Structure formats: C-alpha cells, structure tokens
Amino acid sequence: MTTHLTEIAANFQLEGQITEVAPLGEGFINDTYIIKTAGNSPRYILQRKNKNIFSPIPDMMDNIQKVCLHIKEKVEAAGGDPLREAMTIIPANDGKLYFVDEEEEFWAVCLFIEDTIAYAAAETPELAYSGGKGIGRFQSLVADLDETLVNILPGFHDIRYRFKQWDEVLAKDPVGRKASVATEIAWIEERRQEMLDFWKLVEDGSIPTRISHNDTKINNILFDQKGDVLCVIDLDTVLSSTVLNDFGDAMRFYTNTGLEDDENLDNVSMDLEIYKAFAKGYLEETSHFLTPLEKDYLAFSAKYITYEQVLRFLMDYIDGDNYYKVKSPEHNLVRTRAQYKLLQSMEEQYAAMQNAIKELS
C-alpha cells in the first residue's frame, strides 16, 4: 500500500523527493495521507476523493480552485500570506487538478500548512467566537466572487428535495418500521410547512444565493500559534447556496451539550452562551454584506438544519439504514431522538436566539 501511495503521489507537481506517505486523520469521507519530502521541501496532503459522494470530481476540484484562487488574491491584496491563509491546490503532472489511478479512483493534493492548531470541538464561548469569525471571514472573502460553482451535491440542504425523498420512503415502508415510529413521524409533519416557507425564500431569491462552505465544524478551521484564525480548509462541499446553511450547521454542532447520538436525552440541549459567542464572531465578519432578511433568519437556520437532520436520520431508519453507518439496528432512531431534543431546546430558546442576533447586528 505504501508503494502504491508513493506512486500516486509521484503523479503530482511536488517539490523534493518523496520520503514517506502516511495516513492522516480518520477519513470518514475521503482517505487522507500526508506526503513527507526530503530536506527543506514542503509537506503535502494527499486525498482519495470519494466519488460515491462527490460527483463529478473534476467539477468539484474546479469549484475548490476558483474559491482558493479568489481568496489568495484577497489575502495578498491585504498584505497577508496567501500560502498560509488559503489552501493551495497542487496540480498533477498533466496540469489537471486531480489524478485518476488504474482503479479509476480520483486523487488530489494540496500544500500542508505548517505550524497550525486545529480543535475537535468548541468547548468554550471564546473558542466558539473564534469559530464564528473563521466561518464569517471565509464567507466575507468569497462574497464578491462572481463565479458559478457546479452543484456537486444535488439537493443538499434543500428541504423540498428531502420531503420528496421522505414521502417516497413513507409510501414504501420497505422494512416495516413506519408504524413503530408514528410519534417521530408526527414531529416531522408538524413542522413541514414552516420549513417549506423558509426554503421558498431561498428559491425565489428573497434570501440570496452566495458561496457557502457547507461543512462548518470547527476542525475545518486552522488557527495560528497565537490562536488567531488562519484559514478554512476542507472545501469539497463549497456550493452556491444560502450562507444561512453554514450558520445553522455550525450551531447544530457547536451548541449541542450532548452527543449527536446520545442515548441519555437529559444530556442534550442547546448552549445559548456558545450560540451567542459564535454569532458575535460571525457577524463581526459578515454584517457588512448580509441583507436584513438574511440576518432575520440566522436564528431560524439553526432550527432548519437541525430539523433536516432529524428528518434524515428518521428517514434512513424507516428505509432500513441504507445511508448512514449504524452501530446497532436502533442507531438511527437514537440519533433521531437526540437531534429532536436539540431542536426542541432551540425552539424553547428561540426568542433569545433572535434577540441575540438583533443586539449584535
């Protein structure tokens, strides 16, 4: 395997002789490795891109390159370091942004950014504030990018699309689980119109389409040794959509006091202080370009994304667990109930969430 990876890496325009290719991180979607080189040559990140999720890969890489080059221009114009404050894609020897091996797997390489800090979770308001600034700064840097990005994840965060899937699964009830989750199904149906009303504002352009990151976990932000935001990484999911998705998804991750699949629902709630801290950092970077309607719906976006995840976990449970990996037959149902508890906590604190945005805007 090591020899194979070295051969793959040799197909890219690297500086220095390759000395080692070693696994890096857990790789839930892509397989990720670090390329080490001789002497003072830089290190690189090698990834096998998951063609079952991202399609087509060439379009995905074009999206990433457009975003990276634009950010580099903005950083350089501001007197920053474009090699540290933006991802650098390394082309293959044939000039393409990817390499396809003999098994028709897609590989890509970027420069490894040295001397950085990454966090697994935002456990304090101070770190949540920094996370908000990181995502907000990314959105601000690409707010004026006048490029059309290819939609490599059709239906992503599109609740109308999800409801179509949902209705089809309920109609089929392929493994006979629907009757046992009537209460949970009611949770989805009770909020259907509210979610569609929001999405209609995106569809008709009242809420504008912008470039969004779509995977706003804090471990996708690199910090420098002083603790300041350096850059946002893992751009596979960049899309043209509403930036509210980024805010809402971040709040689903950051503010949950329990686990995504917590069996003890008493552990699960939304931490309002974490929410306020993230929102403060985020709005400091984005207030200048967000419209009043976007600001009005920031708090709602947290409910929207969390609701979508409740729906998707429950839908997969009813469908027989075909999408998410499960550790037990009830795992998706456990996830459903835990995410619903988080949604309920958001609904209970919604007025305070809205007031925080108004005070910060």
User: What kind of sheet is the major sheet?
Assistant: 6 strands, antiparallel
Average pLDDT: 95
Total beta strands: 10
Q: Total helix count? A: 12
What does the radius of gyration come to? 21 Å
Estimate the helix proportion, in percent. Answer: 40-55%
Written description of the protein model:
This protein is an alpha+beta fold and 361 residues long. The protein has 12 helices and 10 strands. The chain has helices at 2-9, 57-77, 125-142, 159-172, 182-190, 192-203, 244-254, 272-286, 292-296, 298-319, 331-348, 350-360, and strands at 18-23, 31-37, 44-49, 89-90, 99-100, 106-111, 210-212, 221-223, 229-232, 239-241. The strands form 3 sheets. Strands 1, 2, 3, 4, 5 and 6 form a 6-stranded antiparallel beta sheet that branches. The protein has a two-stranded antiparallel sheet with strand order 7-10. The chain has a two-stranded antiparallel ribbon with strand order 8-9. Helix 3 packs parallel to helix 8 and helix 10 (298-319) runs antiparallel to helix 11 (331-348). The longest helix has 22 residues, at 298-319. The termini are far apart. The model has no long low-confidence stretch (mean pLDDT 95).
Keywords, please?
361 residues; 10 strands; 12 helices; six-stranded antiparallel beta sheet; two-stranded antiparallel ribbon; alpha+beta; single chain
